[in-house]
Design goal:
Elements: E1 7-9, E2 15-17, E3 25-26, E4 38-40, E5 43-45, E6 51-52, E7 54-59, E8 73-78, H1 92-95, E9 103-104, H2 107-116, E10 121-125, H3 133-145, E11 149-154, H4 160-167, E12 172-176, H5 182-188, H6 193-204, E13 208-215, H7 223-236, E14 242-246, H8 260-270, E15 277-280, E16 287-290, E17 297-302, E18 305-307, E19 311-312, E20 315-316
Parallel strand pairs: 8-10, 10-11, 11-12, 12-13, 13-14, 14-15
Antiparallel strand pairs: 1-2, 2-3, 4-5, 6-9, 7-8, 16-17, 17-18, 19-20
Helix pairs in contact: 2-3, 4-6
Length: 330
Amino acid sequence: MPQARYYQKKENQTIQCGLCPHNCIIHEGKSGICQVRANQHGEMQLPFYGRLSALALDPIEKKPLFHFHPGKKILSAGFLGCNFRCPFCQNYHISQGVGANTDFVSPEEIIKSALADNSFAIAYTYSEPIVHLEYVLAAAKLAHANGLKNVLVSNGFINNGPADELIGVLDAANIDLKAWNDDFYRKEIKGSLEPVKEFITMAAKKIHVEVTTLIIPNKNDSDDEMDRIAGFIAGINPDIPLHLSCYYPTYQYSIPATHPERVFELVRVAGRHLNYVYAGNIGSAPVNTACKACNNILISRRGYSTVFPGLKNGKCAKCGAEIDIPGLSP
């Protein structure tokens, strides 16, 4: 097992984790908020290193990433634990506990699986991969050495030092921006907003980034909040795709599901600032990418089926505009 990173020893065999902004003080025999970084005899240990809760071949669109190698398959690795406490988490059985069945998969084995499956990349996903930083770094470096790309699907709650190291081994990320309200972050999910904003900003300077917001009735679904979210993203780059996902009751939330029409309304609000805004988690409704120059439909998606009706040699077939989407084949 590799040496744990980003922690300091304190008095009386206590340690302080410096991976995420919780900066947990962890006493002997205990673990941090994430449940996967533990103090054993005054040293940070990683008892769940390489213990994967899932390993599956997914469409890249499932992450969701719509502007990164569209139509391709990606090997997705899932973990246990999380540094948030979202009461609406759809993966709560693996994020809010560490009792789920897991299999040990070494970084070398995950690379072999990706190559055998003809995957172009590995996604670190399902629960929160940040709290498994050491494993992600090891696997990601091996992936690059073998010609594979790396994708992070994350809540973005990480301190700047480890964030910079993590971004250095990534090619793309989908980052959750759960609300534009620090009270929501603090009270509902036991986190804070500013570190997430900072991670999005840092990542977008170096890798491909897309952002996801789950739309929850009477929590984060006002026009004003969406205007602020989209304005922030546009201030970084108006071409960053924003995915607005429809919420459904799960885990500790019994709030009725978001009406799809409300999601579509917020897509229009966000579209005042951003060139690419997508409604998600709404059955089989088609989701299209249009040319921002002439509005020609370039890519059409229904479910996880992706076709390219408006592309020719990487350009818009109608107006000839260059389409800046990494890994675009047609």
